[in-house]
């Protein structure tokens, strides 16, 4: 039962990340150059943190393993 819930939540998170990258790609095409450098690891940490509430309210915990050195997006 719990594995099914975990799998569904992981798939939900995967879908959110796919949407995020699609939106980022569409926004990137609108700008010729990003206005600032973005550290990818921090961007993912912030995204996960911003979307934790629905999962935590149901007693689930989401962890993201992000390398200590991550690339920047220019």
Brief synopsis:
With 74 residues, the protein is mainly alpha-helical. The protein contains three helices and two strands, in the order αβααβ.
Provide an overview of this structure:
By secondary structure, the protein is mostly helical. The protein has one domain (2-73). 59% of the residues lie in helices and 5% in strands. It is built from 3 helices and 2 strands; from the N terminus they run αβααβ. It has a two-stranded antiparallel ribbon.
- Overall geometric form: elongated
**Strand line-up across the major sheet:** 1-2
| H-E order | HEHHE
Number of helices in the DSSP assignment: 3
Biggest sheet details: 2 strands, antiparallel
Rg, Å, rounded? 15 Å
Structural class, by secondary structure, is mainly alpha
Low-confidence stretches: none
Q: How many beta-strand segments?
A: 2
Alpha-carbon distance between the two ends:
43 Å
Number of domains: 1
Q: Kindly state the mean pLDDT as a whole number?
A: 80
Give the fraction of residues assigned to helices: 55-70%
Strand content: 5-15%
Keywords: Kinase, Transferase
GO molecular function: kinase activity
Protein name: Histidine kinase
